[in-house]
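U., I forgot to send this yesterday:
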Amino acid sequence: MSKERIVVVEDNPDTRQLLEYTLSASGFEVFCAADGEAGLKVALDKRPALVVLDLMLPAMDGLEVCRRLKQSPATAGVPVIMLTAKAEEVDRIVGLELGADDYMTKPFSPRELALRVRAVLRRAGAGAEAPTEKWSRDGLVVDFQAHTLTVDNENVALTATEFKLLSELIRHAGKVRTRDTLLDTVWDTHFEGYSRTVDTHIRRLRQKLGPYADWVETVRGVGYRFTAR
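Result:
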């Protein structure tokens, strides 16, 4: 049985070595890069199950690497855990808005990192355990097992987070999902005060839904509701 691949992008040699050792000991095949440009190339080449990405990198910072990973159809669905020495809330928010799936601040516990990696991979793979089923209405088709969205016969690329958000809304169609509930269920954790992250992902999801964007309704002061017209 082949090991799941993880790409580590970290410029500090000691931290990079610690990450490689921790993840290798946890049963993963690990590929490392010391700067953003190299990390992006390795991720595109190796097509990993997950990327551990430092924020402060030479050549190309972690935010730009994350942005490009999420823009590329080849890696849009690859989960990203961001690492940084910074603790400022704005960095956490920007990383999450770009599509990062989790966020850890240095110094970190190797054991906690391994647990976070497992948790993110479990969430990303949850759709593979779901029964084969599709949801469709008019020109909108969502395949929950294949993790695909089709809008008027055109395939639309979603990040893993966007797809999970859409699935959560559809599975509870007609019911209001609060921002806090979405943070807990889609991100599997609660980021205090990060409701803006949900709003940003909803905005991007609506853009990708095209003519069906208004099926995701805003319930002012509460959250969102999916209502197919």
